[in-house]
Design a protein that fits this description.
- 77% of the residues lie in helices and 0% in strands.
- Helix 5 packs antiparallel against helix 6 (105-118).
- It has helices at 12-28, 32-45, 52-64, 68-81, 85-101, 105-118, 125-140, 143-157, 161-178.
- By secondary structure, it is an all-alpha fold.
Length: 180
């Protein structure tokens, strides 16, 4: 990878896929600037030939680097490319997460609920999604629906960290709702 001095020296039919792999390698090896530059190249050339796993890895990286628009562009293609139920859940989760960060709470809520209701046996994605949906509903003031979802998380996660956080939310919301 370090011997690649010009991506344009790669045959055109392999260039975009190779750039995706190279960007993932740069990300893993701590070469942030090179990875970000290749993400820009990929967005310019098109993402159709980039592997699903590279799209997801690079979208998460772009998000962590504060490039939420790039992350969103990458994950939208990953959602379309997802084949297995695990890939569908993973990519939809990240899409929902990015929508939430962008303030598109309704879109995020729909995505999180879709994960839970269509893929409720794919953990930890399903319980985390239902927890995030509950947080959005709570923030919107729909406390009764939020309470139902937090209870569902408690049911699924039990005494794990996430389950205990949800239990606390249930107690807090029950006090708020009961005190009205």
């Amino acid at each position: 990878a370090d011997k690649v001095t010009d991506i344009n020296n790669i045959p055109e039919e392999y260039r975009v896929n190779f750039a995706g792999k190279l960007a993932s390698y740069y990300k893993l090896s701590g070469k942030r600037e090179k990875a970000l530059k290749l993400i820009g190249f990929l967005l310019e050339k098109g993402l159709e030939n980039v592997d699903y796993d590279d799209l997801v890895r690079l979208s998460i990286f772009a998000d962590k680097e504060g490039k939420l628009d790039d992350a969103m562009a990458l994950i939208k293609v990953a959602v379309k490319k997802a084949k297995t139920k695990e890939q569908k859940v993973e990519s939809l989760f990240w899409l929902s997460s990015y929508n939430e960060k962008l303030g598109k709470e309704d879109e995020a809520l729909i995505g999180y609920l879709k994960i839970y209701y269509e893929f409720n046996n794919v953990e930890p994605w399903a319980s985390t999604s239902i927890y995030r949906a509950a947080e959005i509903l709570e923030k919107k003031g729909d406390l009764n629906q939020a309470l139902k979802l937090y209870r569902k998380v408690v049911e699924i996660k039990g005494n794990t960290d996430e389950g205990l956080k949800a239990k606390k939310k249930v107690r807090d919301l029950e006090k708020m709702i009961g005190g009205r």
